């Protein structure tokens, strides 16, 4: 018997990285999984890779009309969802003096506004007793040069989880955060810095990690499964760090 037998889960940013690994893990545990991503080709490839229990929608979580369109069709096709993993995110690392308004707005549009309205607009079709998981980052409580805008977006996400855990308790909906550190995902290699500088930054970060390596997407997906399944039935409002110890020392 799977940990998510009979459940319907929706994952934003589900076509790659932690989202895709989580989608595979959720399906293996008995769920039907709905993937949302702004790249149609990536959505189609992910659905084909996962198989018949995966379904895909192309949409940008920073655009409310996209969310309205997707949720209307999800309700028509599936009726309700049981698990919502708001995982979509972007990052661009820049010095404080070099941050443009466009870069600032894009990160807050996806990482903060996108998470907020992904959850808000899902509430009418989210089952009572369901589970919401937000993807934050250890950047929300650590200080690292060039991470300032991204860290701000993820601090807001952590605050959302605390507040929503209280507001949704009467519906028995649990809300938790997953906070990764360096995970081997495509996002980790799209941080906005030059390819020449990336190895030095990676070495610097990994040198501070007690485990001495980057995390794997399957390790993050295992933590996500725990937080959305009944194995964590007495856990809400928490922040589970999948960080190799980086944020704990």
Q: Structural class, please? A: alpha/beta
Which bin fits the share of residues in helices? 40-55%
The CATH class, by name, is Alpha Beta
Largest sheet: 7 strands, parallel
How are the strands of the largest sheet arranged?
A: 3-2-1-4-5-6-7
| C-alpha geometry | globular
Number of strands: 7
Description:
- The chain has about 250 residues and is an alpha/beta fold.
- It has one domain (about 10-249): Rossmann fold, CATH 3.40.50.
- It is about 40% helix and about 15% strand.
- It contains seven helices and seven strands.
- It has helices spanning about 15-30, 40-50, 65-80, 100-120, 150-165, 200-205, 215-230; strands at about 10, 30-35, 55-60, 80-85, 125-135, 175-180, 240.
- Helix 2 links the parallel strand 2 and strand 3 (about 55-60).
- The radius of gyration is 17 Å and the shape is globular.
